[in-house]
UniProtKB/TrEMBL annotation:
<feature type="domain" description="Pyridine nucleotide-disulphide oxidoreductase dimerisation">
    <location>
        <begin position="386"/>
        <end position="492"/>
    </location>
</feature>
<dbReference type="InterPro" id="IPR050151">
    <property type="entry name" value="Class-I_Pyr_Nuc-Dis_Oxidored"/>
</dbReference>
<dbReference type="InterPro" id="IPR016156">
    <property type="entry name" value="FAD/NAD-linked_Rdtase_dimer_sf"/>
</dbReference>
<feature type="domain" description="FAD/NAD(P)-binding">
    <location>
        <begin position="8"/>
        <end position="333"/>
    </location>
</feature>
<protein>
    <submittedName>
        <fullName>NAD(P)/FAD-dependent oxidoreductase</fullName>
    </submittedName>
</protein>
<dbReference type="InterPro" id="IPR023753">
    <property type="entry name" value="FAD/NAD-binding_dom"/>
</dbReference>
<dbReference type="Pfam" id="PF02852">
    <property type="entry name" value="Pyr_redox_dim"/>
</dbReference>
<dbReference type="InterPro" id="IPR004099">
    <property type="entry name" value="Pyr_nucl-diS_OxRdtase_dimer"/>
</dbReference>
<comment type="similarity">
    <text>Belongs to the class-I pyridine nucleotide-disulfide oxidoreductase family.</text>
</comment>
<keyword id="KW-0285">Flavoprotein</keyword>
<dbReference type="Pfam" id="PF07992">
    <property type="entry name" value="Pyr_redox_2"/>
</dbReference>
<dbReference type="InterPro" id="IPR001100">
    <property type="entry name" value="Pyr_nuc-diS_OxRdtase"/>
</dbReference>
<dbReference type="InterPro" id="IPR036188">
    <property type="entry name" value="FAD/NAD-bd_sf"/>
</dbReference>
<keyword id="KW-0274">FAD</keyword>
<keyword id="KW-0520">NAD</keyword>
Length: 501
């Protein structure tokens, strides 16, 4: 039986990192905000993705960094302690207890509703509680869908209880043999982590290379590094069947492989492992939200404009942010979108008197600002300034357009590259340091439109490139941004010298 209807100014579906940021920003002009969450507050990033995966990767990084420095390498003996690594991972994931996150939500003045929400009409939802109760909830101003995404698992694996990123990042044992199906960020990071922990890892890549969203040299560097650590990377691989029994999971795989002479050495094989991790992508979590009552198609991405307002819904009250839009696939970019949509809602529906000193500009100023490029009320960075870090070893970090993407966009580009191992900082950092930096420059405007870094600890170099891309800083001005010596950031000077600037 449904309880009495609850009314709020704004209702946010999903209390992950994106939903929390939406709710916080939307409440800043005094709007009442409720957040609906059926699982753990804090979402995928806190418990099954960003945080636990990096906790699994960090020990191997630390050991490798020490082993690369003569004098320090002698102090590092033996292998990782898997039990200690997993215990530390448990701490980072707060032992899958969201009490701390709940305290933050309540401390921010937001209302947390536990349960699963479904639209029954415009601005109206029913929230099914875990205890079997139903609550009708209405939004006076806006509803924001921030329910994230779900892993895509092919029917081939339906009966073998495969791991997805959730099972892998929360595992409490290290499988002796692990197959990773996929070649993207999740696949390469978790292949690295479990190889560090002692698993015999095979990566099955459907395409011809790893990390297809990055520059080709980045995926090639990661593939070489995995192979050097004993990971088998199989390209052109298709799993045609999967069966689990007491001996493990048996995968029938068809793949192609080309030897040094160009001969095709691929073919069918039977691969037996203890666990199979399927990391072949994710899809928007919009299946069971009642979107059909609003005239929208469930199960797919919600089309939004740069204000994150959902297309095809009259009245301008429905918004979406994060993975559900299909625009973003990282926590940091989803949180950026959350800040945008939260500010849009806070300003558009500002309940304060017109002379109250509107911190966010008020409805009229917000609408005016939304028409300006790089306005705080538009998610402009989603178009061509998205940063991405892959915490493999070597790390891969990039922002903006790749060379191929820039050419496809019709830009005349110049590509500048420099080997990081030739820097003085690399000599100090590690013996045999290897890495590469690349800039993609729009020659007409003389600005950086893309940057890629591959090498140890290059993630911390990315924000400078992100600022250059977003700020559209001319190379002539970048010449005056003097990098400290000896740091890896000196590569900016070397790249500008390569450009003749």
């Amino acid at each position: 039986m449904a309880e009495e209807t609850s009314h709020y100014d704004v209702v946010v579906l999903g209390a992950g990192a994106v939903g929390e940021n939406v709710a916080d920003r939307a409440s800043r002009t005094g709007l009442s905000v409720a957040v609906v969450e059926p699982a753990l507050v804090g979402g995928e990033c806190s418990y099954w993705a960003c945080m636990p995966s990096k906790a699994l990767l960090r020990p191997g990084d630390a050991v490798a960094a020490a082993q690369a420095v003569p004098g320090a390498d002698a102090a590092v003996t033996g292998r990782l302690d898997p039990a200690a690594v997993l215990a530390r991972r448990d701490e980072v994931a707060a032992h899958w207890d969201d009490a701390g996150q709940v305290a933050w939500v309540e401390g921010a003045g937001l209302t947390l509703l536990r349960g699963h929400a479904r639209f029954t009409g415009p601005r109206t939802l029913v929230v099914d509680g875990a205890d079997g109760t139903e609550r009708v909830v209405t939004a006076r101003c806006a509803v924001v869908v921030a329910t994230g995404s779900l892993p895509v698992v092919a029917e081939t694996f339906a009966t073998v209880r495969p791991w997805t990123s959730r099972e892998a990042t929360s595992a409490h044992r290290v499988p002796e043999r692990l197959a990773v199906v996929g070649g993207g960020v999740v696949a390469t990071e978790l292949a690295t982590a479990f190889a560090d922990l002692g698993s015999d890892v095979t990566v099955l890549v459907r395409g011809g290379r790893l990390l297809t969203g990055a520059e080709p040299f980045a995926g090639q560097a990661v593939a070489r590094a995995l192979a050097d650590r004993g990971v088998r990377v199989v390209v052109g691989a298709t799993v045609t069947s999967a069966v689990r029994d007491d001996a493990g999971v048996h995968l029938d795989v068809v793949h192609r492989a080309v030897d040094g002479a160009g001969n095709d050495t691929g073919g069918p094989e039977r691969l037996t492992v203890d666990e199979v991790l399927v990391a072949t992508g994710r899809r928007p979590a919009t299946d069971d939200l009642g979107l059909e009552t609003l005239g929208l198609r469930p199960g797919g991405a919600l089309e939004v404009d740069d204000r994150l307002q959902v297309a095809g819904v009259d009245g301008g009250w429905l918004f979406a942010a994060g993975d559900v839009t299909g625009r973003t696939a990282t926590t940091h970019q989803g949180k950026y979108d959350a800040r945008v949509v939260g500010d849009v809602i806070a300003a558009r529906f500002d309940p304060r008197p017109a002379d109250a000193g509107d911190a966010l500009g008020g409805p009229s100023r917000q609408d005016e600002a939304a028409a300006v490029p790089w306005s705080r009320y538009r998610a402009t960075a989603d178009t061509a300034a998205v940063p991405q870090v892959v915490f493999t070893r070597p790390q891969v970090a990039w922002v903006g357009r790749t060379q191929e993407q820039a050419a496809h966009a019709g830009l005349d580009v110049e590509v500048l590259t420099y080997e990081l191992g030739d820097l003085a900082a690399a000599t100090v950092t590690a013996a045999g340091y290897e890495g590469r930096a690349q800039l993609v420059v729009d020659t007409r405007r003389d600005v950086v439109v893309g940057a890629t870094f591959v090498g140890p600890d290059v993630a911390d170099m990315l924000h400078a490139a992100t600022i250059a891309v977003v700020g559209e800083v001319p190379l002539s001005r970048l010449w005056h941004a003097v990098p400290s010596y000896p740091t890896l950031s000196e590569v900016w000077l070397r790249l500008l010298e390569a450009a003749g600037r």
